Amino acid sequence: MITMKLHKGGLTGPVFTCDFCGGTITDAADANATWTPKDGEREGDSIPFRVICKDCDRGRAGGRCWQQLDHFLVYLEHNSNFDRTKAIQGVNGLARLA
Ligand SMILES: [Zn+2]
């Protein structure tokens, strides 16, 4: 899931946390976005997903779809028409809030 986290210096910023262990995802390549397909899915359907760190995702039952979280974010940027350069211009004090 995405949560707001209070960091050093009183800054608050969004982070991904694992939907199983609650750990903060600090490297998008170390987590997966997963979802379970449903029978009868049709174009345009919305399907909820979970973010799971790879430690928790190892050995879980099959039958799920997944994307490595960094790849998922690339698709999300594309599907949201996200303009990174324009967005960064509107952010003050962009910092890694680990
Ligand atoms: Zn986890």
Secondary-structure topology with pairs:
Elements: E1 2-6, E2 12-16, E3 31-35, E4 50-53, H1 54-57, E5 65-68, H2 69-79, H3 84-89
Antiparallel strand pairs: 1-2, 3-4, 3-5
This protein binds zinc ion.
The site of zinc ion has 8 residues, from strand 4 and helix 1.
Distance between the termini: 16 Å
Strand composition percent:
15-25%
**What's the total count of β strands?**
5
Percent range of helical residues: 10-25%
Ions and ligands: zinc ion
Shape: globular
* Cα Rg: 15 Å
Low-confidence stretches: none
Summarize the structure.
By secondary structure, the chain is an alpha+beta fold.
Observed structural traits:
two-stranded antiparallel ribbon; three-stranded antiparallel β-sheet; 3 helices
What does it look like?
- With 98 residues, this protein is of the alpha+beta class.
- The protein has one domain.
- The chain contains 3 helices and 5 strands.
- A 3-stranded antiparallel beta sheet has the order 4-3-5.
- The longest helix is centred in the last third of the chain and has 11 residues.
- 9% of the residues are buried.
- The site of zinc ion (ZN) has 8 residues, from strand 4 and helix 1.
